[in-house]
Amino acid sequence: MNAALSPARTAATAARVLRQLRHDPRSIALMLLVPVLMLTLLRFVFDGNAQTFDGIGASLLGIFPLITMFLVTSIATLRERTSGTLERLLAMPLGKGDLIAGYALAFGAVAVVQSLLATGLALWVLGLDVVGSPWLLLLVALLDALLGTALGLFVSAFAASEFQAVQFMPAVIFPQLLLCGLFAPRDTMQPVLSGISDVLPMSYAVDGMTQVLTHPDMTAAFVRDAVIVAACAVLVLGLGAATLRRRTP
Amino acid sequence: MMNNSAEGAPARTPARTPARTPAAIHAHGLTVRRGTGRTPRTVLDSIAFDVPRGRITGLLGPSGCGKSTLMRAVVGTQAHVTGTLDVLGRPAGHPELRSRVGYVTQAPSVYDDLTVRQNLDYFAAVLDPGRAAADRRSAAVARAITDVDLSSRAGALAGALSGGQRSRVSLAVALLGTPELLVLDEPTVGLDPVLRRDLWNLFHDIAATRGATILVSSQVMDEAERCHDLLLMREGRILAQDTPDALRTRTGSATVEEGFLRLVDEANAAAKTSTATTPAAGTPTTAAPPAPTTAGEQSR
After folding, report:
1. Which of A105, B29, B165, B263 could form a disulfide with B161 if both were Cys (CB 3.0 to 4.6 A apart)?
2. Cα first-last separation, chain B
3. Subunit contact A83:B105, Cβ cutoff 8 A
4. How many CB atoms lie within 10 A of CB A194?
């Protein structure tokens, strides 16, 4: 195991991932514009009920980066595995940590732009009514993006094809989406489900957004939520690193 | 030591220096079992061989005989390797070897959504990171692109190139950083005759002027004539290790191909008589005696 990070190699990897993206402007457009369009759509679906839009809109600001980064990372890592470039990189003096941190940095940068656009539009165009600081919204969105990157990286190890990788999205994300408190408050669910939702990271991502929505200051619950999401992301990134094997079985 | 001429190097054979310099690759009792569960397949069966330094050693044999597995073992990306396998004086897979060994997989392993130059820039940055090395890197990238004759396509996306061009990009990546050992898994497959000749000239040039050792696999027997030494493989074992000349003489054949076929036929005949006498017939490669335990035994 080569756990030591080389900043230069990590930066080179992040730059390479972004360069790959730049050759694919359609993907960039989809990543940046789909959340904006969905939020706009949502705003007019709840045209007569601004309060509902506030609740769901704030949650979605956290969920979009998670889903996008999950998809992008799982496909990108899978391509790295199937194209043989992963085998080549691991036969070179590149640490697994460099590769993972490089991906996290590159997609984190994309997530920042995505969240800035979506949050800005929601707050200042669509009239999302948030009591707390928009910077905290952005922070949660960024942590969610990191969590999405981590989950995508981990799941790609179990997908043999892009077809399977895409199918992992509903399998991993949908249960969390249903249980995260977006559709019904978590404490009103059947006790077993409520217990399950307590251990799913997206519940804390959505809860963090709700904290910002309803409290002017940073609350203890918000700090707890942010720490849990960040810790989950780091944990899953570690698991993902373990799936990058230098050796072919 | 720099030399940019990618052509005109004749297939000269350097004089053999027996046992004075240690071999680039030394294998003894090398065994690889693949697959999980109760019946792992023995892909390499207690083989022993030496690859001399500064020469081109061809690894030849029918597909599925274990060539790629052997090459992965040498670069250290193969699991379940037992026995002795030393590469450049270190156990195979040693982290220090990662910058000294260049490896080209059978399928071109490059990023299709990057240009040729961007691909090389990235791999160069992995091998030789840091801002201080930027000049050295761009020189290495320029030389690698010239080596494989892709200067006119340096700005093209790798995914937009022809198959032969893409495998040359993959080869160029392995040439970065001036490796002491190049492991090339069927680098000329699917290339036209002119390109194949040019690449073989390049291999000879690299061995002669940069002093690199090259281990190259092929299924095409006429390429065997271009190697200094040959390792002939069949079903996970080494059939013969010799120079092309010696092999032809020994088997009384006009070509290496003929000599190889003769050896295969002999081995098949021998296998038939031995399986007829052994009760546990059917899987001749797994019925081998256990690898002898040596001082340098590695178990992974």
Report:
1. B165
2. 37
3. no
4. 17
For residue B128, what is the domain's CATH number? 3.40.50.300
Question: In this predicted structure, which of A4-8, A196-200, B246-250 has the lowest mean pLDDT?
Answer: A4-8
Interface of B with A (CB under 8 A): 34-36, 72, 75-80, 93, 95, 98-99, 101, 103, 105, 107-114, 118, 122-123, 125-127, 129-131, 157, 173, 300
In a domain, B248, yes or no: yes
And the tokens for A17? 């991932």
Determine how β-strand B181-185 pairs with β-strand B101-104.
parallel
Tens-place pLDDT, residues B203-217 = 999 999 989 999 999
Query: Given 3-state DSSP classes, what are the helix, strand and coil percentages for chain A, each rounded to the nearest 5?
Result: 80, 0, 20
Identify whether B99 is part of a domain: yes
Are the Cβ atoms of A88 and B113 closer than 8 angstroms?
Answer: no
pLDDT the model gives residue B275: 67
Beta carbons of B154 and B109 less than 8 angstroms apart? no
Q: What letter represents residue B240's amino acid?
A: A
Strand B56-60 to B229-234 pairing: parallel
For the stretch A188-235, pLDDT in tens is 999 999 999 999 999 999 999 889 988 998 899 999 999 999 999 999
Q: Which domain holds residue B65?
A: 52-78+93-258
Number of domains in chain B: 1
Residue B162 lies in a domain: yes
**pLDDT at position A144 over 50:** yes
ipTM, 2 dp: 0.87
In a domain, B294, yes or no: no
A86: closest CA of chain B, how far (Å): 8
Tell me: the pLDDT tens digits for A29-45? 999 999 999 999 989 99
Mean pLDDT of B11-19: 47
- The rounded Cα B277 to chain-centroid distance in angstroms is 36
Assign residue B46 a region: left if phi > 0, alpha if psi is -120 to 50, beta otherwise? Answer: left
Judging contacts by C-beta atoms under 8 Å, the chain B residues touching residue A23 are 113-114, 157
Reported as half-sphere exposure (CB side, CA atoms, 13 A), residue A50 has a value of: 7
State pLDDT tens for residues B150-174. 999 999 999 999 888 898 999 999 9
Minimal CA separation from A72 to chain B, in Å: 15
Pairing mode, strands B56-60 and B213-218: parallel
3-class secondary structure, A212: helix
Task: Please state the pTM of the whole predicted model.
Answer: 0.83
**Nearest in space to B205 (alpha carbons), one of B186, B225, B185, B182:** B182
